[in-house]
Amino acid sequence: MREIEINREGHLMFAGADTVRLAEEYGTPLYVVDEGYIEERCREIKKTFIEKYPNANAVYASKALQTLDVCRTVSREGLGLDTVSGGEIYAALKAGVDPGKIVFHGNNKTPEEIRFAIDSNVGRFVADNEYELHLIDKIAGEAGKKAAVQLRVTPGVDSHTHKFISTGNIDSKFGISLEKETRNRIIKFAMESENIDLRGFHFHVGSQLMENDSHLMALDIVLNLIKDVKSELGFEAGELNLGGGFGVRYVDGEETVKVMDFTDPMMEKISGFCSSEGLILPQVFIEPGRWIVGNAGITLYTVGSIKEIPGIKTYVAVDGGMPDNPRPILYQAEYEAVVADKAGSAAGKTVSVVGKCCESGDVLIEKIAVADDIAGGDVLCVFTTGAYNYSMASNYNRIPRPAVVMVKDGKARLSVKRETWEDLISREI
Ligand SMILES: *Cc1c(COP(=O)(O)O)cnc(C)c1O
Asked: How confident is the model over 366-422, as pLDDT tens digits?
């Protein structure tokens, strides 16, 4: 979470706006996104990475938070866009993103998605496996085009993060195994295909990482791969994609990290290795998602029932929960919260914040101290919900998805309309 600002009325401020007014005007639950913060994060990446190194490129992993508005903001700031499905590519194109700056990921792209991406002239495919590489080859051939491809490899590094968001270890559904025979067969196919322009390699070790050691270990492995593949097959990688995974602070006491804490040592390693091994310096890509948008977002809820079980605990129920934020139930994710209309009150009351779904597991925050005088009708703000909330939201229990409001310099605008009950049945026959 970020520093808290409180106005004279004791209301929590966010991006220069009074959060209690936002809740009144747009209703709750409400996702509030600070556009200025997204711009700042992009600019930091530009300054400390893209402009610092001659061969550096950054693409925003839009699965973290993909709205047309966010696509436009990051594109305006000069970043490319990572996508993982036809739907994400479709939305990115509708937002006006340059197709040449779109990177298409995913471990099981369908023929329909690949065709759409090829017809749309998407800039890069990150091929995840042999089956997919053959599909890309075939579909590009049919379209008379050459697909620019990076091959995703599995470096076999275990990252210090939740098992479900760790992706780089050997037993992973993602990427090509580095076992020599397998990788050489796949690389050779890509080299020889007339419909594939093999650019290089990609790895992504995991998400919400606060230390750079997994990235550095994976990088060592992939640099050696580049060297070996050059001598074994004569292919010299012109591109190296380091993935994303840079963590953000969710709760008090957690560290904050800078992208350059990861990229500086990696860039040093890359240039050192390439010059000592006589390799060309590849174009380097990074793919931050959460780091750009995590702390750009908050969620505002209205407090409903408060149940005190003497000697056990106090439950504070809000008008959203796992449908708008599945991360606690998926990853045991932790969050901070404040009673937005009583942000100045002493926070001495320990409660559990729960959602409104018919699931005992629908707990947003297991244990948190909130304003002593919390009551039904208050606005509760949960911080750091910019990443993997809106984009992971569901309609479980037929609960409409919240609206998204973008705020910049205190000015708010509706970015995504709240779903209605009518929307919920609109496709039913
Ligand atoms: C999810 C993902 C990212 C972004 O991860 P963050 O932790 O949000 O930075 C980047 N690259 C790939 C391949 C991913 O799957």
From this structure: 999 999 999 999 999 999 999 999 999 999 999 999 999 999 999 999 999 999 999
Residue 15 CB neighbour total at 10 angstroms? 24
Which tokens in the block code for residue 317? 């129920």
- Residue nearest atom 10 of ligand 1, based on CA coordinates: 244
Instruction: State pLDDT tens for residues 161-212.
Output: 666 666 667 788 899 999 999 999 999 999 999 999 999 999 999 999 999 9
- Tens digits of residue pLDDT in 57-66: 999 999 999 9
CA of 283 to the centre of ligand 1 (A): 19
Distance CA 154, CA 110 (A): 21
What is the residue whose two structure tokens read 């050459």? Answer: 146
Element (H, E) at 328: helix 327-331
**Which atom, in ligand 1's list, is nearest to the CA of 152?**
13
**Stated length of the chain:** 429
Residue whose structure tokens are 């042999």: 130
Q: Which of 41, 116, 7, 117 is nearest to 295 (CA)?
A: 41
Going across the sheet that includes 5-6, the strands are 5-6, 12-14, 17-18
Substitution site in 38, 49, 63 for ligand 1 pocket (most atoms within 8 Å of beta carbon): 63
Cα distance between residue 326 and residue 165, in whole Å? 14
Spatial distance between the Cα atoms of 105 and 85, rounded to a whole number of angstroms: 7
Quick one: which of 197, 193, 291 has its CA closest to 242? 291
pTM: 0.96
| 364 DSSP 8-state letter | E
CA distance 203 to 182: 17
Residue the block writes with tokens 């400390």: 48
Does the beta carbon of 290 lie inside 6 Å of ligand 1? yes
For every residue of 59-82, DSSP letters joined together read: EEEGGGS--HHHHHHHHHTT-EEE
Token match 């091959």: residue?
151
Q: What is the H or E stretch that residue 90 is in?
A: helix 86-94
